[in-house]
Design goal:
Order of helices and strands: HHHHHHEHEHEHEEEEHEEE
Number of strands: 10
Pfam families: CheR (PF01739), CheR_N (PF03705)
Number of helices: 10
InterPro entries: Bact_Chemotaxis_MeTrfase, CheR_C, CheR_MeTrfase, CheR_N, SAM-dependent_MTases_sf
Shape: globular
Oligomer: single chain
Organism: Sporosarcina thermotolerans
Radius of gyration: 21 Å
GO molecular function: S-adenosylmethionine-dependent methyltransferase activity
Protein name: Protein-glutamate O-methyltransferase CheR
Structural class: alpha/beta
Strand content: 15-25%
CATH superfamily of the largest domain: Vaccinia Virus protein VP39
């Protein structure tokens, strides 16, 4: 017995085993695969839900999740990464105008995939940019996320008015050519973006971990999502993106992400090192 206990050298090791069992249980029962998410990030979210449910341990939460789908839904919300804003990282969108728009002009039609679109602010940002560049009418945007609740928000296009000052500044820094307020109408403490911005957008559930490619795209944007995955899962998702991009297609990542040090690095060239915009070349 002492020999067995010696293999578990600390409570942290035991906690890791419990969390591994927890994630495996969710995968086996619900089909949601969080096993390759960054460990420390997923651990924080599990403990947040443990405390919110007034439980005491990982295994207590596992028992409740397996027998209570509503609890599983709450956990899924915790695991979703929903930090976003209009024209987030404005210089990315400014560089997109300069480096990518000239390429897109050469295509008779354009397909763009926003992977992990959250509540849709960046989708509407791209629609505005494309409209100003005269390309929106020939573009189809596929906006996907694992979380159906945030997709519902994205489809409605209704956001808090309290964010509009920041979003307006972002828009101007991103090279916006009109008055940002022209794109939405104010109702009480909310704004609703013009329906014309979503007429060419398909909002759909898609799981980057378990689902496969569903089309060939000219542009894939997945910004500030991969940082929550471990190296193995990042490699899997990069393979998915590579398979989903047409030749000379564009991949846009978040400011803390890179194609460097992946097994796909040699298959792209940098269009913008600082803004993490890459073009598939083989």
């Amino acid at each position: 017995m002492n020999d067995i206990k010696s293999e578990i050298s600390s409570p942290k090791d035991l906690e890791k085993i419990e969390i591994d069992l927890f994630l495996q249980g969710i995968f086996e029962w619900y089909g949601y695969d969080y096993r390759d998410y960054a460990y420390h990030s997923i651990k924080r979210r599990i403990w947040h839900r443990i405390h919110a449910e007034r439980l005491n341990s990982v295994l207590e939460l596992l028992d409740k999740v397996l027998h209570n789908p509503d609890c599983m839904q709450r956990l899924t919300e915790d695991f979703s990464i929903n930090v976003t804003e209009m024209f987030r990282d404005p210089l990315f969108f400014l560089e997109f105008r300069k480096k990518v728009i000239p390429i897109l002009r050469t295509y008779p039609s354009i397909r763009i995939w926003h992977a992990g679109c959250s509540t849709g602010e960046e989708v509407y940002s791209m629609a505005i940019l494309l409209q100003e560049e005269g390309l929106y009418d020939k573009t189809k945007i596929y906006a996907t996320d694992i979380n159906t609740n945030v997709l519902r928000i994205a489809k409605n296009g209704i956001f808090s008015i309290s964010n509009m000052k920041r979003y307006t500044n972002n828009y101007l820094e991103a090279g916006g050519t009109r008055s940002f307020s022209e794109y939405y109408k104010v109702t009480n403490d909310k704004v609703k973006f013009d329906p014309s911005l979503s007429k060419n957008v398909v909002f759909a559930q898609h799981n980057l971990v378990t689902d496969r490619s569903f089309n060939e795209f000219h542009v894939i944007l997945c910004r500030n999502v991969l940082i929550y995955f471990n190296r193995n899962l990042q490699a899997k998702v990069h393979q998915l993106f590579y398979e989903s991009l047409g030749m000379f297609g564009i991949l846009g990542l978040g400011d803390k992400e890179t194609i460097s040090f992946t097994n796909k690095a040699d298959y792209y060239k940098e269009l913008s090192r600082q803004q993490k915009i890459y073009q598939k070349i083989k």
